[in-house]
Amino acid sequence: MSRFSSSLSLSLTVGALVALPSVVACPTPPDGGGDGAGEGEGEGEGEGENPGTGDCPVVDGGQSVCDLQDPSSPSHPGDGALVNLPGVVATTTSFVLDKDDTGAPRLYGVFVADTPNAKRGGVLVEYAPTVTVPTVTIGDVLTITGQAREVSIGAPNGETRVTAQTIVADGGSAPVAPLPVTAADLGEIDGEDYEGALVTLSNVTVESTGNFGQFTLAGGVVVDDTLFRYTAIVGETLTSITGVVGYNVFTGGGFRLLPRDTRDIVAGERPTNGVTDLNDGTIERCAFDNASGCPAVIADAVVVSPVIFDRGSQSRFDRFLFWVADANNVDADGRLNAGSGVMVSVLKERLPTSASYNFAQDDNREFLPGAAPEIGDVVTFRGFNTEDFGQGEFEASELQKVTTTTDSPDYAVLPALFGDNGRDPALLKGGRPDFADGDFAGLEGVTAAADVAQWQGVFVELAGVQTTNPCYAVPFDPDSPDAVNGNSFARDFGNFLVTGDVEVGDLFRLDQSFAGFFLDNDTNDIPDTAKTCANVADKCEDSRSAGQTFDKLVGIVDFSFNVHRVNPRSAADIDVSTGFAAPNTPADNCPAQ
Questions:
Q1: Whose CB has fewer CB within 10 Å in the chain, the N or C terminal residue?
Q2: Final residue before a domain boundary, out of 383, 411, 439
Q3: pTM for this model (two decimals)
Q4: Which of 552 and 583 is assigned the larger pLDDT?
Q5: Distance CA 135, CA 546 (A)
Q6: 3-state secondary structure string across 250-263
Q7: Distance (Å, rounded) from C-alpha 39 to C-alpha 30?
Q8: CA-angle at 459, arms to 458 and 462, nearest 5°
Q9: Number of domains present in the structure of the chain
């Protein structure tokens, strides 16, 4: 999830957040230096090309921002000089500008401006964590003392900054109106007039998208996600886009427009797609969410699963997951076709903007009614078509509830049917890695159906199938990182096997499921190596048995650890007509039925 930000800091962005500041980490400047040749080049070329007018407001006892940005001002400080900026106005909140190698912030930033807003009237103020700073909101009036300096690493121009020693809130608020500009105004030379300033462009079109959260408008203006990430779609029009102007201090140079939050972008027309377009190649599936071909807006998708919380590992963030279907990709009976579903992820660290949901949970981590998408909601979302360990995934940066299938029945969908006059259940055979070890007799490798991947993420129904293996455990070899202390064992994750070698999983686990659960709590600590099919004494409410016939078995096809599985969403998705086993409750401390 690392991202490179070229707009402000001499740095690499790590985990840029939606509606929150990016976090960045500086590389070592050339020659291991501090501000030497880079600053001289920025100061000489950048300011010399566009010298300004010298017509800056007079400030008693200090300088204006204009004095810093305009070298022809009589009060213009030299590079490294101490400055005092009384009565300037914050045009952004404070944000993390730089991180050290441990991930801790080592440099913060805030943009400030003269008032009224004018050319040469904005500047980036940077400060160390040791500087005591009030909570800064947009419009706050501040007095700043510090050192003026020019920053560049070989760029055609430099970026003027103030390294603050003190930042004091004067009290009161004086919102700054953005300056209207055109794309031409933010070119390499003319853009110097607007460096650090709050500006706005009107009626612009997204020309291209690129890596690292950037996109380019017609006319060449690059929009960067240093302060806020907007997932732009090629061809969409923006009624207006507002932001502060930063400068890329690296060799390529270039001014960057930095929107601050959702209010800075007023969307006009935007192209939309359906869920199926994410799977058939119409929208590129990128290995990570910054690539240029995978941003999209998906309209009118039907939620077909509850939301689950996926606690992240070191390689990914905590996130919320749910599955959606394409109501337009159905057969003559109204049942979903292949390619009609996808998993949607919402990163907890960057909850989507413009959301109709807040994802609030109670103490048991269950979602409050309406707090998260619910089955039957019709949603539109914006983000990136990507993948997670081989599974198709759409990482949402915006999410809106449009309606519900209850209110709008035309959106209602039926699951794809397998068995009993439907497709052959064997088309969903999910496969298993080959374990030749004799410890795993009965769990030999299974070859997946040739086209099972086309059903990944799809809402399906198995009808008339029978249980062929009631406890289909997952083998762990001694050398596997999943084995415990080098022990070879087969763990019961609640999976079972039905007609056609279709594996049924227990992904959702929202309530006491058909497969039951191991009673693992403060008084009954069960080691992983004991969570096996043979250990029925510590298992509660397991209803699996051989020979069961299902009138229906409904669920979502998920791909995990190289296996496709059908995952029922709740007990209501499992309808056993014959061979139903009463829930197994051997332990004295199992919950009462």
A1: C
A2: 411
A3: 0.74
A4: 552
A5: 63
A6: CCCCCEEEECCCHH
A7: 12
A8: 115
A9: 4
